[in-house]
Design brief:
Blueprint: E1 3-8, E2 14-20, E3 28-35, H1 57-65, E4 70-75, H2 92-104, E5 109-118, H3 120-129, E6 136-142, E7 155-156, E8 159-160, H4 163-172, H5 176-180, H6 182-189, H7 193-196, H8 213-224, E9 250-258, H9 262-274, E10 280-288, E11 296-297, E12 300-301, H10 309-312, H11 315-328, E13 337-342, E14 355-356, E15 359-364, E16 373-379, E17 385-386, E18 397-401, E19 451-454, E20 462-476, E21 482-491, E22 501-511, E23 530-543, E24 548-554, E25 580-585, E26 593-599
Helix pairs in contact: 2-3
């Protein structure tokens, strides 16, 4: 059983902390996880491919204490047993630093501290490491650690990630305040979060979170701060700003293709390498958020090699090997970068009814891969996507974007949006199971507000591995709008999929008012042509012969992201909507394109 301590912070707040010690003489190196999800509660992600029952905190701790580590689990401020008021993300740097200082003062600690944790427990790691606490020697940042939360994680190039709304509602239910107040809890439980998503945007005092003002307040602070100003440059949500003073701890950055944090993982890996901090490693898998021992995500099967267990043994064994390498000098025969490349499967429907897309792991010396060749594929107004540039007189293409009828989210990279939407890959066809879809449930490509560009049928395989960016020349007839981009692997028609299968790989968005300078948004003059760069999440996919590479351009992706009302009103406070006429230019002087990093097969 652990010993529980109330660890004091600099402002007098005390944090509930469980300590597990080896049955031996100390002192010991320490492994710490700081979490808002209950230091004593089992994490759903602590499974292996062989054992689908999640291991408890005590069981995970026992695995490490048996190898000579003290293990510490701590509730973050304002959650479960810890004192104080919860404000998401913004107290974790100083609280983490103060806990490290407390650990170093304990007689059972040998002065060396390792950290680990998934999601929010990765954000807490990056936050404390930005302050370079003494004793920190190793970190495993699993799906988190905000490089720039304005770019990805809370907002995406200005658009607001609505997972923050569902997360706030779900975790308000487990807050100490709701536990202590049966009326508050009953009021929260009475709300239908799915129905509330039909009433966007919410307003302070008129949202499902109105019963818990603290949670409503922090959510609206994120939602209404649009510009990349001092709010977004705070400790805890802007690791990029601290790369030069970050801890010199050895780090593993891990994310995956259906997770909201591959931009975070790659940006921190690259930024900390440039800043010459500690040794950096990067793992990018095919998983959803925290589901690293699975092989099926959405409607797609990625094969027996997809689970991390295929090469790591299991996740606990990998973590122990990494900490032993840093703390004890044990050999670690691991590449700097390990990437799962999706694709190469049969394309058939398996016994479970999922598309067999397959995939395989590759190793690399760095990210982006030095051998990947960035190649521009140009958009043509007849729907072609090809390397050849457009002609001088090619006409632009316009469409009506109605914010009352947004393009529905059908899979992609996200988390915490349940029960409204789920991550993973699906055929881009509307269905009753996806929020916002309506009969006759046709392909998204059939919508007039989705511009579709695709290559000819590939004669040879094309392997895309790395960062993805779309350079577009655009205009709108109003003060503001959004532009989205989705990269899709189009499987050819087959006996199992007579209509083919349009498999989403990655997507991105740009809110037009932030196109030139995120810190100083500017509304548009109607018809003004703007060059924008949409940063899609990185990906890795092998497009087989017979497939097509497809790019969809539109202006919404809801409920993953909030919908631009096209009115220019302040972020998160719009009362009006207008239909925007949006235009994409694709002539020789304004060559819209997507740049794909091609890696030789």
């Amino acid at each position: 059983m652990p010993t529980t301590h109330m660890v004091p912070t600099r402002d007098g707040i005390r944090l509930a902390t469980d300590v597990y010690l080896p049955d031996a003489a100390g002192p010991f190196p320490v492994i710490m996880e700081r979490t808002p999800y209950g230091r004593h509660l089992t994490s759903r992600s602590e499974i292996t491919a062989a054992n689908r029952t999640p291991a408890s905190r005590a069981e995970i701790a026992a695995g490490f204490t048996a190898h000579g580590y003290a293990v510490v689990y701590q509730d973050t401020r304002g959650r479960y047993g810890s004192e104080g008021r919860f404000v998401k993300y913004l107290s974790d740097g100083e609280d983490g630093f103060d806990t490290c200082a407390w650990l170093r003062d304990q007689p059972w600690c040998d002065g060396r501290i390792c950290t680990m944790g998934l999601s929010y427990a990765a954000h807490t790691q990056a936050a404390l490491a930005c302050l370079d606490p003494p004793g920190l020697v190793a970190q495993i940042l699993d799906c988190g650690g905000f490089a720039n939360a304005w770019q990805a994680g809370i907002r995406q190039s200005g658009a607001f990630e609505l997972k923050q709304a569902t997360w706030a509602y779900r975790n308000a239910l487990t807050s100490p305040e709701a536990e202590a107040d049966p009326v508050m809890r009953a009021a929260l439980e009475s709300e239908d979060i799915i129905e509330w998503f039909t009433r966007m945007p919410w307003r302070p005092g008129h949202s499902p979170l109105r019963h818990h003002p603290d949670y409503e307040a922090y959510l609206f602070a994120q939602w209404t701060h649009g510009a990349f100003d001092a709010f977004w440059q705070q400790l805890g949500i802007w690791t990029e700003g601290f790369h030069d003073c970050y801890s010199r701890a050895a780090c593993v950055h891990m994310s995956s293709w259906w997770d909201p944090y591959p931009l975070t993982a790659t940006a921190n890996y690259m930024g900390l390498k440039r800043a010459v901090r500690g040794p950096q490693r990067l793992i990018l898998g095919p998983w959803k958020h925290g589901d690293r021992s699975d092989a099926c995500f959405g409607d797609v099967e990625f094969g027996r090699d997809a689970p991390i267990d295929a090469w790591a043994g299991d996740w606990t064994a990998y973590r122990r090997r990494f900490f032993d390498h840093v703390v004890k000098g044990a050999k670690l025969d691991e590449p700097a970068v390990r990437i799962f490349v999706m694709g190469g499967g049969s394309g058939r429907r398996n016994a479970a009814g999922r598309l067999e897309h397959g995939g395989h792991w590759i190793s690399a010396a760095d990210w982006p891969l030095p051998d990947a060749d960035p190649v521009a594929f140009h958009l043509h107004n007849d729907g072609r996507l090809e390397r050849a540039a457009p002609s001088a007189d090619a006409a632009p293409v316009s469409y009506d974007f109605d914010p009352a009828r947004p393009v529905p989210t059908i899979g992609g990279a996200m988390s915490s949006l349940e029960p409204v939407a789920s991550a993973g890959s699906w055929d881009q066809v509307e269905a009753p199971s996806f929020f916002g879809c309506a009969p006759p449930y046709l392909p998204l490509a059939s919508r007039a507000d989705v511009l579709v560009f695709q290559t000819e049928t590939l004669r040879a395989p094309a392997q895309v591995v790395g960062p993805i960016e779309a350079d577009l020349f655009v205009a709108t007839d109003g003060p503001d709008t959004d532009f989205t981009a989705k990269l899709i692997d189009v499987h050819p028609p087959s006996a199992d999929y007579p209509r083919g299968y349009a498999m989403i790989l990655t997507d991105g968005i740009m809110r037009l008012r932030y196109a030139e300078d995120p810190a100083h948004p500017r509304l548009r003059t109607p018809g003004e042509v703007t060059r924008i760069r949409i940063t899609l999440f990185p990906t890795a996919n092998l497009f087989l012969p017979g497939h097509r590479i497809r790019l969809d351009v539109s202006s919404s992706n809801f409920p993953k992201l909030d919908v631009n009302p096209n009115t220019g009103e302040p972020e998160g406070l719009a009362r009006r909507r207008r239909i925007a006429v949006n235009t994409v230019f694709m002539d020789a002087a304004r060559p819209s394109r997507i740049v794909l990093p091609l890696l030789a097969v």
